[in-house]
């Protein structure tokens, strides 16, 4: 009687069988690893997109990024940077840097101040959805801060000086009471009724905006017989503004405490003197001060 034996597979067949079994066991692990990698990749992309969104300006809005230094290019911390006519106001850090986020596109007047330094100003054009990089240099000054006197209501020294000049009668003046009584929408409206002053909207390749001109000084006639006017220097809270200044960038009347106008160099008080004042000066004072 013969005993039957099960046939033993050849060596090559056994190796193929082991490889097949190993692949079958490895496949779930590979799939799980790939799934985990996909999930991690999705999380990474989401985190990166969130980070980019945090620093990217909103649609139609921009970022103002700047630095303030002294004349030796040393950074100035604790400098006050404000946008005239708005509530936007920031303080520079110890590296002299400042940043304003979500700024609508348009033209703005910036004022930079710090204790112990003469203030400065600049007109900037903010494009839509972009970053504007600025640099300001302040010159050291020995001028003292305004003191405060209480006389029925809070009055700063600059407005006390305003009243002294008004009583002397050298220029033309608009008081806070005049502004509140008239109720105009634009600060430039109060200059239109002044003697010897012309307020006009100008549009050229170099400039577009509302300017104030003196009819008395630096004028004359061009080749076509048209009268030429001389652009007056505008000063805001004692800060000399850029030449050919656009009056539309001034604060609204509800923020103004007084306006004084001097149409010629001969009548300009010493505190408003400068290298070129032949066309006269318009001094605007705000209620809170820049």
Overview of the molecule:
- This protein has 290 residues and is α+β, with helices and mostly antiparallel strands.
- The chain folds into three domains: 34 residues; 80 residues, Immunoglobulin-like (Sandwich); 139 residues, Beta Complex (Ferric Hydroxamate Uptake Protein, Chain A, domain 1).
- The chain has a five-stranded mixed beta sheet with strand order 11-19-20-17-18.
- The longest helix has 45 residues.
- The chain starts with 10 loop residues before the first helix and ends with a strand.
- About 3% of the residues have low confidence.
Features of the shown structure:
Ferric Hydroxamate Uptake Protein, Chain A, domain 1; 290 residues; Immunoglobulin-like; single chain
Summarize the SSE layout with pairings.
Layout: H1 11-55, E1 61-70, E2 80-83, E3 89-91, E4 97-104, E5 106-113, E6 117-118, E7 120-126, E8 131-140, E9 148-151, E10 153-156, H2 157-168, E11 172-175, H3 176-182, H4 189-192, E12 197-203, E13 208-214, E14 220-221, E15 227-228, E16 230-231, E17 233-236, E18 239-240, E19 256-262, E20 281-286
Parallel strand pairs: 1-8, 17-20
Antiparallel strand pairs: 1-4, 2-3, 2-5, 5-7, 6-8, 9-10, 11-19, 12-13, 13-16, 14-15, 17-18, 19-20
CATH superfamily of the largest domain: TonB-dependent receptor, plug domain
How is the CATH topology of the largest domain named? Ferric Hydroxamate Uptake Protein, Chain A, domain 1
The CATH architecture designation of the largest domain is: Beta Complex
Unreliable segments (pLDDT under 50, ≥5 consecutive)?
A: 145-153
Could you give the distance between the termini? 119 Å
SSE pattern: HEEEEEEEEEEHEHHEEEEEEEEE
Amount of helix: 10-25%
Strand order of the largest sheet: 11-19-20-17-18
């Amino acid at each position: 009687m013969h005993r039957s034996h099960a046939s033993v597979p050849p060596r090559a067949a056994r190796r193929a069988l082991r490889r097949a079994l190993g692949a079958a066991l490895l496949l779930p692990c590979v799939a799980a690893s790939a799934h985990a990698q996909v999930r991690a990749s999705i999380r990474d992309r989401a985190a990166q997109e969130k980070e980019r969104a945090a620093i990217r300006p909103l649609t139609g809005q921009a970022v103002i990024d700047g630095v303030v230094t002294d004349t030796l290019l040393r950074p100035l911390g604790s400098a006050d940077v404000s946008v005239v006519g708005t509530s936007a106001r920031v303080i520079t850090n110890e590296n002299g840097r400042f940043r304003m986020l979500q700024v609508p596109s348009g033209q703005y007047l910036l004022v930079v101040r710090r204790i112990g330094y003469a203030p400065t100003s600049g007109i900037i054009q903010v494009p839509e959805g972009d970053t504007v990089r600025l640099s300001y240099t302040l010159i050291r000054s020995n001028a003292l801060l305004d003191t405060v006197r209480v006389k029925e209501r809070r009055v700063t020294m600059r407005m006390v000086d305003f009243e002294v000049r008004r009583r002397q009668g050298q220029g033309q003046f608009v008081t806070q009471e005049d502004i509140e009584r008239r109720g105009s929408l634009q600060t430039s409206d109060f200059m239109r009724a002044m003697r010897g002053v012309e307020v006009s909207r100008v549009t050229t390749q170099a400039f577009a905006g509302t300017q104030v001109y003196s009819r008395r000084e630096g004028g004359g006639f061009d080749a076509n017989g048209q009268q030429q006017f001389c652009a007056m220097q505008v000063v805001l809270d004692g800060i000399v503004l850029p030449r050919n200044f656009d009056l539309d960038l001034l604060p609204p009347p509800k923020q103004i405490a007084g306006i004084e106008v001097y149409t010629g160099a001969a009548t300009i008080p010493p505190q408003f003197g400068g290298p070129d004042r032949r066309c006269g000066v318009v001094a605007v004072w705000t209620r809170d001060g820049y």
